[in-house]
Every structure is written in structure tokens, then in C-alpha cells.
Amino acid sequence: MSFPTNFLWGGAIAANQCEGGWNEGGRGLSNADVLPYGEDRLAVIKGDLQMLTPDNEHYYPAQNAIDFYHHYKEDIELFAEMGFKALRLSISWSRIYPNGDDERPNQEGIAFYRNVFAECHRHGIEPVVTITHYDIPMNLVTKYRGWKNRKLIDLYIKLTKTLFAEYGQQVRYWITFNEINIMTSACFMSAGIVFERGENRYVSIYNAVHNVLVASAWATKLCHEMIPNSKIGCMLNAGIYYPKTCNPLDVQAAQSENRKHYMFTDVQVRGEYPEYVIKEFERYGFKIPFEEGDKAILKENTADFVSFSYYSTRVAEANAKGKYDSNLLKSADNPYLEHEPWGRFIDPIGLRITMNEIYDRYQKPLFIVENGLGTIDQPNADGYVADDYRIHYLREHILEMKKAVELDGIPLMGYTCWGPIDLVSVATGEMKKRYGFIYVDRDDTGKGSLRRTRKKSFGWYKQVIATNGESITDPQN
């Protein structure tokens, strides 16, 4: 069994990292627009430092990003040249509802995405749309305190009704929230949460978690009702924790870390909170803020598929603090693996292990919607990058993905690698942390011509797609 003929090969981008046009087309201010470049960024991402409006002392890379807003036709044409079957992209909430609680949607924003989806279809590319990808109107942060406020469920429902009504004929695949499990660490970036002095953070975070889970279930219900032939899934930042040793305490620590993340998809796929989470909540004195109808909505509207990002596995060690920072998640060292410049371990076999663990847990179709190597590229005078290292990285991961399908029998819908075109890193705000098959002439300070040029990996991925994953050469061997 090889990849099915309808396998969704492609790439993944996000509005907050590529779109730009932050003050054009009627768009409102979003939380991504106030994430600064530099030493304050992480504190703002986590909600520890309040930055509610842009100032003149910082550079905000998401505001202009790589200007997909004006370059989308050119970029989609390049994706089509590689043979993309799918493009995962996201909606900027504040482009549809500038303040989040507006009475009517912004028609310029509606038209923009309609044109983007039409351009995809013109080239035979299936849009895979993430409704919320680290994106929330700032008015919902300042007026309602972000996802801590249950009012956002209603506003999110309004957003999804608009999207399904407007784009139901153009989009068949939907994802409710990007990397939902990251909202407990990247609180402002993911959920618009900023903390006040003396606030009980645990209670605030898990109130927000409940609101997001209920909103996700409502979106699933509405999608099935309004677009009967569509599929809508959840999304996890995946990559399992290995135990540091076979010491039972390390194994137990790894189990505990994995459960912290699976709890989200446990609810989204199984329809109820798992008992281990309920017991933890009891120990912390937290009571799930169920309101009438919540349990039924969760139980009756589960995800059609489980999508996930995979960059790295992590290591859990009992009674020890993590040494490496991977997607804002701590890990102990792993002496068996190399790691890229920003600390993630490079673990292709871990992808297959993770796929098996997720499928064993849920028995739902899987969809790898992010995977890639963020590293520094050195273009020549013409903007060409001989990125053999990226080809090697992706080849090794695709081979393990192939084994999971062929040898383990895992139903896999598609593979949309992260950042097919260079874009702003969400964790660091950098451009030098590049993922793409397409080089974009822009630096960490926002300077550059924005010229797009094909890297060596561009032609390589084109061949991978053309042969449905059968032809995968490695220039390093």
C-alpha cells in the first residue's frame, strides 16, 4: 500500500506569518500585529508582558510579513508549479470582523479570501483552511480579556457561520484551531490572554481552554450542517515525549507530559474530558465551567480527522527542568539526536512513532499539516539557495511517513510541509529562520525587495509530488 492517488501533497502557511496588509482592506488590529521582534517577544507571547498596541520602539514583523496580501497570485502560481494538491492557509479573524464583535463582516476581507481560494482552484489546489491560527482581534483582548471570556464562543460561532456560508463551495477541508495545546504556554499568542498581578493563572488558562474546546465543537457541528460534504478536524502540536531512561519515574514523567497535550484532542475526538484531567483539576481546585448544553455539544460533535504539526520529539526526566526549548515546550537533552540551530531535535523516526501513537489512541484519519526544517540559508547573488540539508531533512521524514502508511497501515490524508515559502517565524519573529522551497528577499528588520526565487529543494519537492512520493533522492548521499 503506497500513498493513495488523492493524497494531499502541498504546503502550509498562516495569515499571521505571511499575509501582511495589516492596515489595508478594512482589516482590524490583531494580536499578531503587536508581537514585537527582539528580546520582549517571548514575554509578550506568553502573556507576561502586556503590549496591547504597537509602539515606536519595536519592529512588528507580522504587520507586513512577506506581503502575501499583494503577492498571493504569484505565490500560488509557484506552489502550482511544484504540483501542490493542497495549500493549508488560515483566516485572519480581524480581516473578516475587524473588531471581532462587529455586527456585519468586512466585505473587502470576504472578497480577499474568496479571490485566494479561487486562485487555488484555478491551479487545481485544494484549500485546507484553519479558522484560527494564532490570530485574534485585539478588541477581543482589550474588551473581553481574550478566550478567558465565554463571550468569545458566540463571536467565534458567528465567524464560522460567516466562513461556512461564504466559502462552503470553495473549501472542503477545515481545521478549527491551530496547535490547540500550545495555548497553555503561548497564552497571548494563542488565546489573547494577558495576566494581571495576582491572577490565578491555572484557572484563567483552563477556563480559556474550556471555551476554546466548546467553540471548536460548535464549529464542527455548524460545518457538518452547512457544508455536508466537508471534513473538519482538530490540530495538535505533536511529537511525543520519550522517557530519559527506563527508570519508572522517567517513564511516568513522559506519560504525564504526553497527557498534557493529548487532553485537548481527547476532548475533540472522544467528546469528553478524560478522567486523568478531571482528577488533576480536582487537585488544583479547578472546576470545569460547564454551562447547559456544553457536554452534549462536545460529545456529539467530534473531529473527522486529527491533523498535527511535527517538528521534534522531546524528552522527559523526572524531577528535572528542561534544557532545550522546542515550540515553547521544554525538553531534557537527547544524546542520540542532532538538533537544528533553534534547539529542536531532528528525529525522523519520531514522526512514525508519533503517527502510530496518535492513531492507536484515536483510530481517526491523520493529516500532517506542518513539518519542516527552520535554518539559515545563504543565497547566491541571484537568490538561489543550494539547500541540500533541507532536502535531506524532508526526505528522511517523508520516508518514515511512508513506512507508517505502507507498513503500519495508518490512514493518512496528506502532507503539507511547513513554510513552502519563507515567512516570519512565529516563535522568534525572525526571517532568517527559513523553511521554504522559495526564498523571499526580506531580513529580520523588514528590509528587502520581497523578490521570490526558487531554491534547489523546489525542484526536488516537485519530483516528490509528481511521483506521489515514490521518487525521493538525497543529494547528501
UniProtKB/TrEMBL annotation:
The keyword Electron transport does not apply. One of its GO terms (biological process) is carbohydrate catabolic process. Keywords: Glycosidase, Hydrolase. It comes from the Bacteria. One of its GO terms (molecular function) is beta-glucosidase activity. The keyword Hydrolase applies. NCBIfam families: PRK09593.1, PRK09852.1. Belongs to the glycosyl hydrolase 1 family. This is 6-phospho-beta-glucosidase.
